[in-house]
Design brief:
378 residues; alpha+beta; Heat Shock Protein 90; 2 domains; 5-stranded mixed sheet; two-stranded antiparallel sheet; 9 helices; 7 strands; 60% helix; disordered C terminus
């Protein structure tokens, strides 16, 4: 599941806000508390026959909280530094509510005092002071409740972001581990093929070594990328086929049919080579002539559909993908599943080819350079 950036990250440590765009913060606080004052004062304005002093009193009451915000933010900083449990934090905040409400009652009363027309000044009416204090207490509880809710939400979002980062690192580690399984497997097979020609045909062996060096250089250029373009992947495959062509000559014919418009599509690096190698070793290596491998790629329903087909011996009647022990097919399937998880089903399928042989089908999302699997997960 993709998680976007935390919009409340600054609220997780609210005292930092005092040093971040103070003018913007002051403007936001003024507008917010003005809205609160209007919300409370407009009904009283209508009920009092448009006595504007009723509205002014409510606005002054709301604005007085702005003067108290620095102290409340410092108090919040101190409470966070104590790292108390939620229960203890709630108790401490509740205890603080009494002196904070008292101070606000006095402060608002002093600010309202010059306006004698505002009859409900808590400093002029001791009876009303109790109700004013209760209103201050309820406002304080609302401030604390909203603030704590935003902080808990911020921490939850941060934990989700960190979890996503960990999952990405695990995915990359898993993909690297799978690729490391492929590369020694490929090198072993290539060197084994070369060694068989060293004595029988030294010139042929040297040519195969040169082609292997070219392939390894191309592979190193892509070693830091889980995905490369289809064009780059086909270049790797071409270098690999050059090695096999030296070895098998006319016994194997490889055809590549790829639509030009999909050449920039991102695919897993080292995707095609193990599939073609598997087709050669298990499908048509035993043939004396007439071996054919066809690699094709085209758009299909918003996806890139890739086929690797051969006219070899085909699949045994009891063949099952789950029972495959070879590295090539198994690791390639695992890499596809890790890079492109799909609720619709497996993106990797192996089936018998009509007329004999085997067909490997892969479905990859159509994404071009700069929008690979890791970026899409973000």
């Amino acid at each position: 599941m993709a998680v976007t950036a935390n919009p409340f990250a600054a609220l997780d440590v609210p005292w930092r806000m005092t040093s971040i765009a103070p003018l913007r913060l002051a403007t936001f606080a003024f507008l917010t508390w003005t809205a609160v004052g209007l919300f409370q004062g407009v009904p009283d304005l209508f009920n009092s026959g448009f006595n504007w002093y009723m509205l002014l009193g409510k606005l002054i009451d709301a604005w007085s909280w702005i003067l108290m915000m620095p102290a409340l933010l410092l108090m919040d900083r101190w409470l966070v530094s104590l790292e108390q449990s939620v229960l203890r934090l709630s108790i401490v905040l509740l205890l603080f509510s009494i002196p904070v409400s008292f101070v606000h009652t006095i402060l608002a009363g002093l600010l309202i005092y010059p306006f004698e027309e505002i009859w409900w000044n808590p400093l002029r009416d001791a009876e009303f002071a109790k109700y004013f204090f209760l209103g201050s207490w309820m406002t304080y509880c609302a401030i604390v409740g909203i603030g704590q809710a935003l902080k808990f939400y911020s921490r939850f979002m941060n934990s989700q972001l960190e979890l996503e980062r960990v999952e990405k690192r695990l995915l990359e580690a898993n993909l690297n581990a799978l690729r490391l399984q492929l590369e020694p497997h490929f090198l072993f097979n290539a060197l084994n093929a070369i060694s068989s020609e060293v004595v029988a045909d030294p010139k042929l062996a040297r040519e195969m070594i040169e082609n292997l060096g070219t392939l390894l250089r191309c592979s190193l250029d892509c070693k830091d990328s889980a995905e490369i373009t289809l064009a780059e992947e086909l270049a790797l495959l071409t270098n690999y086929l050059a090695i096999q062509k030296v070895r098998f000559g006319d016994r194997i014919d490889v055809k590549i049919n790829v639509e030009p418009e999909v050449m920039s599509t991102m695919v897993p690096s080292m995707l095609l080579q193990p599939l073609v190698e598997n087709a050669i070793r298990h499908g048509i290596e035993a043939r004396m002539s007439g071996g054919m491998i066809v690699v094709s790629a085209q758009k299909a329903g918003g996806q890139l559909e890739i086929h690797v087909q051969d006219n070899g011996v085909g699949l045994p009647p009891d063949w099952r993908m789950e029972a495959v022990e070879g590295v090539g097919l198994r690791v390639t399937r695992e890499r596809i599943s890790a890079l492109y998880p799909s609720p619709q089903g497996d993106r990797f399928a192996v089936s018998a080819r009509e007329g004999g042989g085997t067909n490997v089908t892969i479905y990859v999302p159509l994404y071009e350079v700069g929008t690979g699997a890791r970026e899409r997960a973000a």
